Amino acid sequence: xxxxxxxxxxxxxxxxxxxxxxxxxxxxxxxxxxxxxxxxxxxxxxxxxxxxxxxxxxxxxxxxxxxxxxxxxxxxxxxxxxxxxxxxxxxxxxxxxxxxxxxxxxxxxxxxxxxxxxxxxxxxxxxxxxxxxxxxxxxxxxxxxxxxxxxxxxxxxxxxxxxxxxxxxxxxxxxxxxxxxxxxxxxxxxxxxxxxxxxxxxxxxxxxxxxxxxxxxxxxxxxxxxxxxxxxxxxxxxxxxxx
Length: 243
Fold this sequence. Notes:
Blueprint: H1 2-5, E1 7-9, E2 16-18, H2 23-40, H3 47-62, E3 71-75, E4 82-85, E5 89-93, H4 97-100, H5 103-118, H6 121-142, H7 149-186, H8 192-205, H9 211-215, H10 222-231, H11 233-241
Parallel strand pairs: 3-5
Antiparallel strand pairs: 1-2, 4-5
Helix pairs in contact: 3-5, 5-7, 5-8, 6-7, 7-11, 8-10
């Protein structure tokens, strides 16, 4: 009954998920972490790009369906990255701007991160880790008299990480790509720009991952990411053309 009551569905995709915390708890934790990070970071003084980040964020948040206390900041950081904490706390690094290049390119990045927040991927990963830890604790107690306990527990831990945690991380990334594509289209940004952005990122990273590195990666390969976006393009364009 507990696990049934903890089941929710992801917006836009309808995928069932298990979450063990409330949205209010997640938002409070996100706000606290965000405030601490901002205090330790350098907020950009670039008025033009800061205004653009806030403009794009507001447009996407308006179509997200979530009444979060949204916040958008541009931070001075050479890393090509952006992220969004639970409750709608978004940070964009200046290092990603050479790759976004356009407002729609920036919308690609921000809609992807906002999708993570509204899908509550962080809370879902936390629940998965909690369940894995519970399982390890039970296994450790059950095998207390087994001389091979440490070896068995190590195997269970590796199997849980590779068989559950990593695949869900890749699923979350692919889900955020799909949701972000629809969100940027709903917000009035051409979804075709998403493919162009990820092609630029793929070129910068030297191409897609493959083999074991992709199996162990928390992200889908560049090639798969672009292919999946292209497969969802007709759906996204319906939102873009009919808004």
